[in-house]
Amino acid sequence: MVPEKYLQKVILSSDVYAICIQHALTTEKQEIMGLLIGEIDEVKCISNISACMILHRSDKQPDRVEISPEQLCGASMHAEQLASELKRPMRVVGWYHSHPHITVWPSHVDIRTQATYQMMDSLFVGLIFSVYQNDPRVRSNQVQLTCFQAYQEPGGSELERREVPLIIENTPLHLYNLEGIANLPKILIQEEVESHSVKDSETKDPIARLHNEAFKTLALGHIVSKVSRPMCDDLVERLNATKLRIKELETIKQDLLSQRS
């Protein structure tokens, strides 16, 4: 019998980390979720995560998230497209979700969900981002991250979490991840529109419809002011920093060329 393999290490690119954090901070009332894409070293059991896919939530819940088979299929197709573009093997290697206002540790539901994914791929990994955790000592919010797999002792009946060492690798912002960031406000807007469409279909009262429409407008305005605008400001700052770095490198290049001559 071949023993089950477990991950020994996860390498997470800094741009995927930034996308996940940005996604997690979009709401402090419900959990968000997404899928992680990358490469697996089957021999060393190391997962290298270099892309992600933000998932649309059809059902918003404060304490759980679910990934449908259709979403998994869509993420697999996205991974295949990336593999073709990048000329290297890419596949869905894990999932992530948020824990707003609660600890970073996976719940029993999270561990059972993780165990289900590991039945399909023993090296599948889960990431949890804990956000909006108040620390009264420093009067600030904390962001915590855990990387885990499900584990069951031989002969045991209870599933447990197994923490996996995580390294965040400094990488440039790739175009495919930039597109993922740009799609985040679109996905949030789509979720809000669908949510209010359901409410409108359930009521015939014109006052209630007007009330729902006002709340939808408020929610969409919140997405623009709290997500889209800061995101654009951040990308502009990234661009300015990149231009400044290019200018510094050009100066260094000219100095080196002048020394050669």
From TrEMBL:
Q: Name one Pfam family in it.
A: JAB
Q: Which GO terms describe its cellular component?
A: BRCA1-A complex; BRISC complex
Q: Which GO terms describe its molecular function?
A: cysteine-type deubiquitinase activity; metal ion binding; metallopeptidase activity
**Which UniProt keywords are given for this protein, alphabetically ordered?**
Coiled coil, Hydrolase, Metal-binding, Metalloprotease, Protease, Ubl conjugation pathway, Zinc
Question: Gene3D superfamilies in the record, alphabetically?
Answer: Cytidine Deaminase, domain 2
User: Source organism's superkingdom?
Assistant: Eukaryota
Protein family according to the UniProt entry: Belongs to the peptidase M67A family. BRCC36 subfamily.
Q: What is this protein called?
A: Lys-63-specific deubiquitinase BRCC36-like
Q: Which organism is it from?
A: Sitophilus oryzae
